[in-house]
Amino acid sequence: MFIHGKNCTSPNICGAVRVTQYQGESELLDVNKISCFLPDECQEGSVNYGRGRTVISLTCCSADRCNDKHTPKPGVPSANGKKCYVYNDQNITDILSCVGNEDRCVSATVMTEGRKISVKGCASRSMCSGSGSAQMTGVLSDICCCQADLCNSAGGVGVSLLLLVAPMVCFTLLS
Hints:
Largest sheet: 8 strands, antiparallel
Radius of gyration: 16 Å
CATH class: Mainly Beta
Number of helices: 1
Order of helices and strands: EEEEEEEEEEHEE
CATH superfamily: CD59
């Protein structure tokens, strides 16, 4: 498979990824990349910490040069009924209404600007799997994901290592 001067060899397939990061209603970052991806990387996902949200949109295909267009910008998602805890600006726990495909609650510790920050919020299943769209973000974090409403309280559900983006943290897309 051939893509813009790059040969995607099996098991890789062609793909276009768009990573869009928001702080509140403002868009902070919008990156498009056309490359080769493993099939399990072709999963869309998002993680939402209330103050910030990162959305990974992918279009994967298996024909030569089938990814000649960028992935469209994600639309404005609507609330899906899921509720998770989130820290507000004063690090007090509030309740966040999850949107779009965010079907998990998340608790994590991420490094930003040389210090550890605890975050809580909503995430899609692919961001909690340790593969796929989660691998396209760049800050290694300890993270817990769970499925029940408000399950990301102070207690613990199994911890796993995951690549995750916290609001306003720079990241590198993997090729």
